Amino acid sequence: MIRKSIILMIIFCHKTISNEKCLESLQSNECMNASNSTTGVLLDPGGLLEPGQVTNPGNDFVHVSFIYHLLPGIDQNTITKLETQLRRFLYSIFVESTGTPINFIIISDLHSKITVNRVFKEVIGIILSEHLIKHKNKNKDWKFPRFKLQYVAIQYFQTNYRRELDMFKSILCSSEGFEIPVIDEEIIYELVGQVDLTGLDKIRLQNLCPAKYNVDIFYIQFLYHLEFPNFIKQLILLDIDLRFRSDVGMLNDLFDIMNRQVLELLVVKSLNN
Predict the structure, then answer these.
(1) Which domain holds residue 61?
(2) What distance in Å separates the CA atoms of residue 263 and residue 270, rounded to the nearest whole number?
(3) Averaged pLDDT, 224-240
(4) Beta-sheet pairing, 178-181 with 202-205
(5) How far apart, in whole angstroms, are the C-alpha atoms of residue 133 and residue 137?
């Protein structure tokens, strides 16, 4: 009952009331009775959105996106694994928070959305219990962040960009193989192992893409710039098997030092890994 009460108190905090003040005054009416307010935390905004309907919760928010979509025919063991990954992923974001506001843009479907909402609520309950009651959080600068959840329908991309998604898969996950020029021998060796490249100006690659990657969710990200509103200048795309070791704002700050050379380096390192 205590945990549920804490969650309800946080949900209705006015965004102009500091998180510390709100958390320290859980027994008062200050957070509950804030009038004419925009919610500091929104757990269930309703149905699914088209990408163009995503709203700006504030200029100080960091925009973070991930996909949670349970494919048809998925087995229970995989469902359990994905839910565990999601729980650890969200826990790491909140436990490492120093207060950076987060706009979560979640690509999902109505069925999967139910799971995401439930896991968000469970993680928030655990975080607040550990910090306020058990005092277990080792992050001395910890602050509970303002955040907003916005669910975008994955079906929107699958329906409106069917041709593009199939094209991406045919190029990036071809089962028939494709030819690439022999420009950097080290990259070729990383891809196919030690082969004799003497006299070759190109080489044919085959079977580099496992069948499990031949699905829409791995290519929808290439369409985001066509649909999301212009206020989103920087968007952090994440996989749910990641864990944070610092506030998400520090990751967002890296946008300020990125340039063409950095991006090219990231591409080369990803090929080498």
Answers:
(1) 2-160+224-257
(2) 11
(3) 95
(4) antiparallel
(5) 10
